[in-house]
Amino acid sequence: MAHGVGTVCGPSFTAGGITRSRWTCHVVTWLPAIPADYFTVETWNLRRLHVLFFMELGRRRILSFGVTANPNQVWVSQQIRDLSWRLEDLGMPARFLICDHDKKFPFAIEHILAAEGVRVIRTPLQTPVANCFAERLVGSVRWECLDWPIILGRRHLEPVLSEYANHYNRARPHRALRLHVPDGERSAVQAAGEVRCSPRLGGARSLLKPDTVPINASHTLEWAALRRN
After folding, report:
1. What architecture (CATH level 2) is domain 33-177?
2. Which of 26-40, 97-111, 199-213 has the lowest mean pLDDT?
3. What is the pTM of this model?
4. Are residues 133 and 112 in contact, defined by beta-carbon separation less than 8 angstroms?
5. Of residues 118, 76, 126, the one with CA closest to residue 98
6. What stretch of H or E contains 64?
């Protein structure tokens, strides 16, 4: 594999006389990786805010959102340091950080992460599919959250993204995790009894729980509902 990263491959297959390894076997190698990317948000007065995010590939967990109107090298370097401290607090091993060649990812971040034993892997030019997990998260954030409210500014956007990250990590089931949530395992839910609905993000999302469980109880029985009409 490119960039000197080893692979853990399963059975291969032959197509057109060429033996190829299955794509799924390569994903195993990238599990201790942190995909990172930017997206932009327009405010009510047409100002553009830049959002930098990091996610854990193995559990599909959102690690952090950073919001700024000026993503310069000083700001990005501080976000990288904050990421390193968060990984240390979580006891989360990471070997790679996957990002593109955007100038908003300065080469200075490679020196910061090298001290933590993390290697920066830059995807090929104009190949967003190479960082597909980050691109998919951008879509989820827009479809499920940012397409609904009118953002007033940075101080408004930060708590909105914080609440969405909490919903995404603790209440939103993921197919890749067999309908578990990124922050823990899901217990079996009894298909009986009353269900309590708690709105999230001003009603854009809903949180459903069995009525027998207090609304502030453990999130092991949480379910993410589709957007209400």
Report:
1. 2-Layer Sandwich (3.30)
2. 199-213
3. 0.74
4. no
5. 118
6. strand 61-68
